[in-house]
Amino acid sequence: MTETPVHPALWPAPVASGAVDATVTVPGSKSVTNRALVLASLAAEPGWLRRPLRSRDTLLMAEALRTLGVGIEEGVGPDGSGEAWRVIPAGLHGPATIDVGNAGTVMRFLPPVAALADGPIRFDGDPRSYERPLNGVIDALRALGARIDDDGRGALPLTVHGGGALDGGRVRIDASSSSQFVSALLLSAPRFNQGVEVRHTGATLPSMPHIRMTVDMLRSVGAQVDEPETGGEPNVWRVSPSALLGRDLTVEPDLSNAQPFLAAALITGGKVTIPDWPEHTTQPGDQLRRIFTEMGGSCELTATAEGRCLVFTGSGAIHGIDVDLSEVGELTPGIAAVAALADSPSTLRGVAHLRLHETDRLAALTKEINELGGDVTETADGLHIRPRRLHGGIFHTYDDHRMATAGSIIGLAVEGVQIENVATTAKTLPDFPRMWTEMLTGAGN
Q: Which of 7, 66, 238, 422 has its CA 20 to 30 A from that of 437?
């Protein structure tokens, strides 16, 4: 974790004066939006992306693909059904410079795309992006025939010297630090001359739901994928070379970004309704239904005239939990925040890889909750949280969107919590402060 930053922008986290009762419409999934943008850009024909997320990470992805020559037009869908992006594939070319910000999907998904471009593509980003590992993608691309200059860092900045095509073939990688290494290779693999066979060699593979999402989305645009979930060899994924179809895709709500609002119902003993919750999904955020129910709430997927929605209700009690979050690590900050307010200790396991996310999330959560009077201890692969009476103070975010929402969750029950740089939530959840305040206003606050 980097040193505690000093930032003048402090946002007083609103305290809930009663049980929330609100309907919150969550914007589209970042993970789905950015995968869909890559696949549509590599397709053989134009496609539509409906209800895309417009956040820092997705706008960086869209602009990067435009820089490579892809047409991405903003407007409404062909039937006038709301905001949509028209993606028009074109010949990929350099020279170009891509700003990845601190977006893991952009810095990892696009080097394989750049290898298919004609010309040099330079990748750069925020200072923190230099600390995030890219060796899995870099080494794999080199093994598949790409030329990459990174001065031996295994990280940004780097230049991919695109040759207009890539041989592809078999490659072995250790994706223990990020499942995005696997997804990055699979997304571009249909365009490789030989496709790809990716064999994960590490002991663990975090965030498997995100790989399942990648596989499902590849199949939806016509790719042939052999993978462990459907009887394939363990830890091996094979994608055959093929043309990709242009599709009309509607992006699901980002279920992980529903987390703070569901937490608000749990903490206040209230009720929050999330419209358009999918009945079947590969999103990790769907596990919140199980986890937050174990922590004291109840939920129901119900059909209405407007469509399917999730109704989550808090009981007025918050219980600690012992849970393996290895597949859903991105949920850890919000779960830790709720656990800090529980009536019994919690142990969050299987998330050592969070030390390599937007910040070292385990160290950051430990420091910030403890500075509010909490009792959090880092373990080898997670956190042990013993609830204590908390007090107000500054909750630093380290430019990490999920740290900002975690602090806001605690602020519902603790007066005087101030979130440093709440604007970092724009990475995946635009206008979070307004959404949060309106949720509480709906409760009569």
A: 7
Q: Which residues contact 400 (CB under 8 A, 6 or more apart)?
A: 333, 357, 358, 359, 361, 364, 424
CA distances from 108 to 112, 127, 185, 280, 313 (A): 8, 16, 9, 27, 38
Would you call 320 helix, strand, or coil by DSSP?
Answer: coil
Count of other CB atoms within 10 angstroms of residue 133: 20
- Provide block-wise average pLDDT over 10 residues at a time, the chain (445 residues): 55 97 95 98 97 94 98 78 89 97 96 98 96 94 97 96 97 92 98 97 87 96 92 91 96 96 98 94 95 98 84 96 95 98 98 86 97 97 97 96 97 98 93 96 57
Angle among Cα 369, 375, 381 to the nearest 5 degrees reads 85
What's the rounded Cα separation, in Å, for the pair 404 and 358?
12
Cα–Cα dist 261/370, whole Å: 23
Q: Which residues are catalytic?
A: 330
Question: Tens digit of pLDDT for each residue in 22-40?
Answer: 999 999 999 999 999 999 9
Distance, in Å, from the CA atom of 259 to the CA atom of 263, rounded to the nearest integer, reads 6
Q: Is the N-terminal amide bond of 157 cis, ω within 30° of 0?
A: yes
Chain position carrying tokens 């929605």: 309
pTM of the model: 0.88
